[in-house]
Amino acid sequence: MNGQQPSKETAPATPSTAGVLASGATLQAASITVIVGESGSINITVPDAPAIVARKISVTLPDGTPVPNATVQLKNNYLTYAYTNSGTSTSTWSSRPKDTNGYLGQMNCAYCFVAPPKYATGADGSVTFSSFNPASRSSAYDADVAYDDGELNQNVKKTFTSITETVVMPFMAAIKVTLPDADPATPAKETDADPSTPGTDINVDATGGVTVVTDLVDEDKIPITDFSQSVETVNAGSSCEQGGLVAATDKVTTICASGGVAAMSVNETSRIQAMSVVSAKAKAGCKAMMTATTGSNGKATLKICPTVSTRYRIRATGAIATQTICVRVNKVPCVTAASVGKKSLTLKKGGVATFAVITKSTKIDVPKGAKVALVVAAKSKKFCSVSGTSVKALSKGSCIVSVKVTPKATAKVKKPATTTTNITVSIP
Question: Where are the annotated segments for Disordered (predicted)?
Fold first, then answer.
């Protein structure tokens, strides 16, 4: 340095793709102070991130019934952000990736970070996410655990004592379901056609459908009457099914609306009395009854007539949804989250993929005469767009496109169910 004395410099370090550790911790910002000598190499060491844990939160009712789509809004900043020091050097780490805009926060501003994230439980009432495991907290408690469907609104303030927690919500009416015998050929009544797979599987009957009976009671076990409920298709791999990161404003109805479920008739104004649903069973063929109203005994009967193996649940505003059920056609298992993750294609910026290209790349089955609709997830619209049944890449990144396929109606199946497949479009 031309005979000058060594200088002392403070160099701010900004995060890059190299700022992600094997644990998943992402460097937000760092301020490193080093002594720069006249010659030789200098090693700059960033204070390391603390360990990241897989934190599992299960939400149940007092009787142990899982609460799907409950939200877990983190309040303790130290679960998401870690501030580490080594000598005069400091660094800020996040336990989750940057948001869709590439932001985590701002250097040297303790309050300029993105607010802690919000998660939702899946069909089994649980969600697992990465976080730090701090000994202190920035708030009076760690998280707000809530269930809000517009009518039911419950909230529990939770302080975590371990990385595996069960949060018990106050009583809420929950729809219980009685399933048909999965194997009528055996003396014992079995409710699962394939115990080797997660969840419950039921094969369609001779009519090509499945009849389910629901039961709804209040806290005193008194039947709840004249209560409308509907069948929903649950899409594999979605936050609605598996649980995961959701928007800060999301609640039950919006979590499952963004590609998570295909609502059959939850919002329809027409109601079908339970007695008329029962009488419909006797008619020839499979006549779907996707909406029903409970009778004086709190029970309702619905009929599901799928054209392909599909996951369903029964839900109503003002009641907790049932468990997710896989209704199998020709004994074929339902699509799994793992297979959904494999539905992907790559496009260059400005490129367009026709539906022929999409089906060839993703192997999506489209029956002859079926109606097809493509929908871009709200958070993906800056990366790609849809025109008819084609997808256009707008900017570098990735986007989620839902492909909705509705088979052609037949004399036997007048209202075929719509299946939704999510594909990931990568734009390098």
Answer: 182-205
**What is the per-residue pLDDT for 108?**
45
What's the CATH code of the domain at 283?
2.60.40.10
The answer to the question of residue 333 being in a domain is no
Give the pLDDT band of residue 268 (cuts 50, 70, 90).
very low
Distance from C-alpha of 232 to C-alpha of 316, rounded to nearest angstrom: 10
Residue 320's nearest CA partner among 163, 200, 194, 152 is 152
pLDDT digits (tens, 9 = 90+) for 144-177: 999 998 899 999 999 999 999 999 999 999 999 8
pLDDT grade for 15, boundaries at 50, 70 and 90: very low
Of 151, 145, 148, 141, nearest in space to 79 by CA: 141
**Do the domain assignments include residue 124?**
yes
Structural domain harbouring 28 = 7-168
Range scoring the smallest mean pLDDT among 269-278, 335-344, 403-412: 269-278
Q: Total domain count for the chain? A: 3
